[in-house]
Amino acid sequence: MNRCDLCGGGIDHELTSYSIFYEGHWIIVENVPADVCQQCGEKLFTPETVEHLQKIIWGHRKPTKEIQTPVYEFA
């Protein structure tokens, strides 16, 4: 079994979500293949997956769906 470089926890291959704040709004990409640490949650993506994410985000494709997200001020 592979181990996490950060904490030594076990790594499982799974589909996860990737989110980024880009050009003034949040973008979420669902069902992204990644190796995920079961202890600390660190997500590791292959170079091919990162390239595909960049094409999705920079390509300004029409999203599959849109969601409304509440935003709170930390006071």
3D architecture notes:
Helix content is about 15%, strand content about 35%. The N and C termini lie far apart (about 45 Å). The chain is globular and about 40 Å long. By secondary structure, the chain is of the alpha+beta class. It has a 3-stranded antiparallel beta sheet with strand order 1-2-3, with helices on one face. The protein has one helix spanning about 45-60; strands at about 10-20, 25-35, 45.
- Helical/strand content category: alpha+beta
User: How much of the polypeptide forms β-strand, as a percent range?
Assistant: 35-45%
The strand order across the widest sheet is 1-2-3
Low-confidence stretches: none
Compressed to H and E, one letter per element, the order equals EEEH
The percent of residues in helical segments reads 10-25%
Oligomeric state as shown = single chain
User: What's the number of helices?
Assistant: 1
Largest sheet, described in full? 3 strands, antiparallel
Total strands: the figure is 3
Q: Indicate the overall shape.
A: globular
Mean pLDDT, to the nearest integer, reads 93
* Rg over alpha carbons: 15 Å
Head-to-tail CA distance between termini: 43 Å
Offer a quick outline of the entry.
This protein is α+β, with helices and mostly antiparallel strands and 75 residues long. The protein has 1 helix and 3 strands.
Write the layout of secondary structure elements.
Elements: E1 11-22, E2 25-37, E3 43-44, H1 47-58
Antiparallel strand pairs: 1-2, 2-3
